[in-house]
Write a structure and sequence with these properties.
Alpha-Beta Plaits; six-stranded mixed beta sheet; single chain; about 325 residues; four-stranded antiparallel beta sheet; about 40% helix; binds (R)-mevalonate; Ribosomal Protein S5, domain 2; alpha+beta
Length: about 325
C-alpha cells in the first residue's frame, strides 16, 4: 500500500464574515501561499488497525484511540470511516504539517480537515468527491466553530473564489480583473469559536440591531461581487472600509486590528478590513502595484507579525 499526500490552501474572507452565519452572502478566496499538508503512510509492522498521528507543529504525537471522540482530527478520521463503511484502517501513520497560523482567520482548521479527509480516503483506495469532502469537513468545523456557516470548508475544498450563502449549492464567480491583497497578521490568536459564540449572544440580546448589521454586510457582499465581475476591483476599497465599520459595530474588531487597518489606509491602501472571526488574527488591505511595498512596510512597522501578498484571480 503506497503513501498518500494531500495539501489544502488557507483562505480569507473578503466580505461578509459573521453575517454569513445568519444567512447573508459572503465572499471568500483561497490563499495558496499557506498550506496544510497531510500524508498517510502505511505501517505494516504496527499493531493491526493502529492509526498513529504525528503533528509536530502543534506538538501532538498520539494514536486515534487515545484521542477523545470530539477531537477534530479524530472526528475527521472517524467521519471518513463511517462514510466509507470501514471498520478498521490498515495500520498507518498520519503526518500533519501546516504553514497556516492557527486561530488567525486563515482557515487552518478547515484546511487540515480537508487534506486529512482526502489523504485518508485515497489511502483506503476510495477517493471522495469534493461535495462529500466538504460535507465531512463541515461536520468537523462544527467542533472548531460551534455554529459555522460552512464557508471555510467550501472554499478550501473547491480552491476557488466563492460567493457563499449558507445551505445553498456552491456558487463561484468570475474575477474579471485580478487584484492584489496584503494579509497582515496581528499575531494575536483568536479562536473563531469564541467570536462566533459572542456574536450569537449579542444577536440574541439585540436581534433587531444585529440583523440590520448582518443585512448591511450582505448588501456589501453583493455589491462587491458586482464590482469584481465588472472588472472594477478598485470599487472594493470603500466596500471593505464599510464592512470593517460593521464588524466593529458587531464587536469583533480589536485595537490591534483597527491599528493595522488605519495604518494600511494611511499608507495608501484603497481599503482595509479585518478578515475572519476577528478580535485578533488577520486583516486584509487592497493595494495597487505602486502602493503595495509601502503599505506592507507600514503594516510591519505598525506591529504586523507577518504580511503575505496574494493575488486574487480565478483558478487556472
Ligand atoms: C470564519 O472564517 C468566518 C465566520 O463567518 C464563521 C463562519 O462563517 O463559520 C466568522
Amino acid at each position: 500500500m503506497p503513501a498518500f499526500t494531500s495539501t489544502s490552501p488557507g483562505k480569507i474572507i473578503l466580505f461578509g464574515e459573521h453575517a454569513v452565519v445568519y444567512g447573508q452572502p459572503a465572499i471568500a478566496v483561497p490563499v495558496t501561499q499557506v498550506r496544510a499538508r497531510v500524508t498517510v503512510l502505511p505501517q505494516p509492522r504496527a499493531p493491526r488497525g493502529q492509526v498513529s498521528i504525528h503533528a509536530p507543529d502543534v506538538g501532538l504525537q498520539t494514536t486515534l484511540d487515545a484521542l477523545p471522540a470530539d477531537h477534530p482530527l479524530a472526528a475527521a478520521i472517524r467521519g471518513v470511516m463511517t462514510e466509507l463503511s470501514v471498520e478498521h484502517i490498515p495500520a498507518c501513520m498520519v503526518r500533519i504539517s501546516s504553514s497556516i497560523p492557527v486561530a488567525s482567520g486563515l482557515g487552518s482548521g478547515a484546511a487540515v480537515s480537508v487534506a486529512l479527509i482526502r489523504a485518508l480516503a485515497a489511502y483506503l483506495g476510495r477517493p471522495l468527491a469534493d461535495e462529500r469532502v466538504s460535507a465531512l469537513a463541515f461536520e468537523v468545523e462544527k467542533i472548531h466553530h460551534g455554529t459555522p456557516s460552512g464557508i471555510d470548508n467550501t472554499v478550501v475544498t473547491y480552491r476557488q473564489p466563492v460567493f457563499f450563502i449558507k445551505g445553498r449549492p456552491l456558487e463561484t464567480f468570475s474575477i474579471r480583473q485580478p487584484f492584489t491583497l496584503l494579509i497582515a497578521d496581528t499575531g494575536v490568536a483568536s479562536p473563531t469559536k469564541e467570536t462566533v459564540a459572542d456574536v450569537r449572544a449579542a444577536w440574541q440580546a439585540e436581534p433587531a440591531r444585529y440583523e440590520r448589521l448582518f443585512a448591511a454586510a450582505g448588501s456589501i457582499a453583493r455589491a462587491a461581487r458586482q464590482a469584481i465581475e465588472a472588472g472594477q476591483p478598485q470599487r472594493l476599497g470603500p466596500l471593505m472600509n464599510e464592512n470593517h465599520a460593521l464588524l466593529q459595530e458587531m464587536g469583533v474588531s480589536s485595537h490591534h486590528l483597527d491599528a493595522l487597518v488605519r495604518a494600511a489606509r494611511e499608507a495608501g491602501a484603497l481599503g482595509a478590513k479585518l478578515s475572519g472571526g476577528g478580535r485578533g488574527g488577520n486583516m486584509i488591505a487592497l493595494v495597487q502595484a505602486e502602493t503595495k511595498d509601502r503599505v506592507a512596510r507600514v503594516l510591519s512597522e505598525a506591529g504586523a507579525v507577518r504580511v503575505i501578498e496574494t493575488e486574487v484571480r480565478n483558478q487556472e
